[in-house]
UniProtKB/TrEMBL annotation, chains A, B:
Organism placement in taxonomy: Bacteria, Bacillati, Actinomycetota, Actinomycetes, Micrococcales
Record keywords, A-Z: Lyase
Protein name: Putative hydro-lyase GCM10010529_19670
Domain of life from the UniProt record: Bacteria
Entry EC number(s): 4.2.1.-
Amino acid sequence: MTAAPETLTPVQARQAFRGGLRVPTSGFSPGFAQANVLALPRELAFDMLLFAQRNPKSCPVLGVLEPGQVSSALLAAGDIRTDVPAYRVYRDGALVAEPDDVVEQWREDLVTFLLGCSFTFEAPLRAAGIPVRHMDLGVNVPMFRTSRRCEPAGALSGPLVVSMRPVPAERVADAVRITSRYPGVHGAPVHVGDPAALGIANLAEPDFGDAVDVPDGWIPVFWACGVTPQAAVMESKPELAISHAPGYMLITDLPDAELQVP
Amino acid sequence: MTAAPETLTPVQARQAFRGGLRVPTSGFSPGFAQANVLALPRELAFDMLLFAQRNPKSCPVLGVLEPGQVSSALLAAGDIRTDVPAYRVYRDGALVAEPDDVVEQWREDLVTFLLGCSFTFEAPLRAAGIPVRHMDLGVNVPMFRTSRRCEPAGALSGPLVVSMRPVPAERVADAVRITSRYPGVHGAPVHVGDPAALGIANLAEPDFGDAVDVPDGWIPVFWACGVTPQAAVMESKPELAISHAPGYMLITDLPDAELQVP
């Protein structure tokens, strides 16, 4: 790839990933929503959609590809089996592969869920002068399993997974206000302050992503995270599940602006 | 029944309906959400939930009862088979009965969807001094099939159904603003003004409910309506579907206040 990530259209970015580029998608195609991906067999599709309906903060549904469908208006001229930079394949709840595409693993009965990603609200946070620490440090956002349980649905259950962003104390209210305008990408925080209240023992040891420090005078703020359904897959052990690799998202054609509510 | 409808708690109202009371629910248990009801066989449950996800203005999901479940936190100590004042039973898309309960018709594989109802936003409209014409006239709200198609999902497709409330021209903006705060009960209007743009030939001949006049200087305003899934049932012809009778809603324990967004 010669072009810079921030100059690629979503179609160009998906083509690059289809061609074999394997990099995290932070910074790609600014202004367009990136999505968490989870494909499950049709027999679990109702349970997953119901899990999302009951846990809308962690699982905000941007779109669903029905069985046999590998493209949609969210990924025009795209192919969900190849257009994500890196995938994870789970069998019976165990991670068995992290391939560049899932053409071999694909089945006609798979239903694909595209869920909103907090990358969308990081831009308006920064535009408001609120530092996004993990971006300033050039690392992935830290994510934690919590002791809080999701509402189960059918065969699916699991813990709430959260992302953590430290925010200067005097900007916490603004961070709440700004992110609450984006319910389609996790919305307002689920918790502000003490990590122990969520069962998080040590902020320096995230379950996914990279550790980020909390400077003096800053407060850890926790948002529901799109990795939550992957945690449900690990716990509920469906025979097959395919997801994106954390941080390696699907870049959609959906403008971030359409996700903002008044 | 000796108690007045507006003094009954949701539990008391459901008990009265279970006991045989068959009346429209407008005015019952003010402050608590009333719900559209649709039960479908398990094999159609994913399609219905996806239909709702793709058509959120007409099908805002308040809750789902899984197969075998006849109660939930939305109807504490309740029974979805008996607690609605009047039901409709559809077989292969045709209305075949309007019973007081559906104990005989019930099946263990039925999944019940509870969808928000615009009754919730009529109270704040009136509180803001915006007249709600059909209430002032003491009739049911007029509802119309439109020429606008819903986004289909699997085996389910159908037209958008709307409710119409005439609003004084100078209050239309306020009506939009107030109802947009209630996305869980259809939210902002889908159309303001000319009925012909929605394929509605004659406001005096609603497809459901009662006709309401549009006084001089008032504008017809159209909101997506929870009868939309019943229209999809009529068109898509599942072997069995059970719904409430229009206007005879389920009274839930959900406070209207929880449905308001900032």
